[in-house]
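Q: Could you fold this chain for me?
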Amino acid sequence: MQINKAWLKTNLNLLLLVVLTASVIANQVVLIKTKEAVGISKKGALNSLTLQFQKILRGSTKLSGDLAEDAVKLVFMQGTPEVYGQEMNVTYDAVQESIDIMKQYDPDYGRKKLELSAEEKQRYINIVLKISCEFCCGAESIIFKDGRAACGCAHSQAMRGLAVYLLKNHGSEYSDDQILKELAIWKSRYFPKQMVQKMSNQLKSGTYTPDIASLLLNVKLPKYDGAADSGSAPLPSDIQNAPSMVGGC
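A: Sure. Below is the predicted structure, expressed as structure tokens.
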């Protein structure tokens, strides 16, 4: 069979483009199959690895006993929140975008305010009084005792918004301490350096604020060199010296 050299010369670029396109499609098919096999989602997150990392950070994996290393493990979270992450479209890996979503539910400044029952409102106050925004606006608690916002920064709006959202949509699934833990996890994403230092200091002293205590829920603590007796932190709800109020920010 003789090849028409003139035809081949004229259509060579087209043939190469067809071959290249077919190769790209084949590679994409292989890549998708490989991702599915190892548990990579459409967003590119390694689900299995993320879940394992979340378990480490949530305390289901044994801590090392190294104070600095454990402080990072206990504070720093990656991936998507298990219960509400997908439905709210928030992730620990996209902090600003998640703030913009959660702050919409802030009962003072949000555009999507949710109406709380009297019981839910009391739970809201009990929970949110225990968390501060001391690294940004200086508020020792992000609400006043009557539930009004004590700070207008985006961080506090997002934490208040998340608290309201969880109480309204998942109130029976979370205890007050567990909701506080979710707020503290986000606070740790807003201020990672400061929260790691705060965790390290409190692990060493054995004296805990409610936000740090919430991050230690169900965590068996090892004995750290030079630290007070370890074992476990108190429940946040058992800590009486909750932060006091400050006037604005």
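A (continued): The chain is about 50% helix and 0% strand.
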